[in-house]
Design brief:
Blueprint: H1 3-8, H2 10-23, E1 27-31, H3 33-36, E2 45-51, H4 58-68, E3 76-82, H5 83-89, H6 96-103, E4 105-109
Parallel strand pairs: 2-3
Antiparallel strand pairs: 1-2, 1-4
InterPro entries: NT_sf, Polymerase_NTP_transf_dom, Type_VII_TA_antitoxin
Pfam families: NTP_transf_2
GO molecular function: nucleotidyltransferase activity
């Protein structure tokens, strides 16, 4: 897990804290340019939240995440996927799950 990254970036730590509280995730990953160390001054945080199987529609899960981040004053894109959906696409090399496992940073694991 990337504890040092969370200590260096208090905004990221606050994002993770809020998402844990709102979504009760199994895991949270940082991916994209910030995870690869290629972020520019206008780069946002790309976050993948993995939740247990949920009967809620995907738009509702994402809504919980975005509401939790209201007022954070930083650009964040959040994807909220169930563990089953994430695992089902993991073998596809060009999928989000595969890319996240290769390039992402694990920020939280329950």
């Amino acid at each position: 897990m990337e504890a040092e990254l969370l200590q260096r970036e208090p905004r990221l730590a606050e994002i993770v804290r809020r998402l844990i509280e709102a979504c009760r995730p199994e895991r949270i990953y940082l991916f994209g340019s910030k995870a690869r160390g290629e972020a520019g001054p206008d780069s946002d945080y790309d976050i993948m939240v993995i939740v247990s199987d949920s009967s809620e529609p995907s738009y509702r899960r994402a809504q919980h995440a975005y509401l939790a981040l209201r007022g954070i004053n930083t650009a964040v894109d959040v994807l909220v996927w169930t563990r089953e959906a994430f695992d089902r696409r993991l073998h596809l090399r060009a999928s989000f799950p595969s890319t996240i496992m290769r390039e992402g940073k694990l920020l939280y694991a329950a």
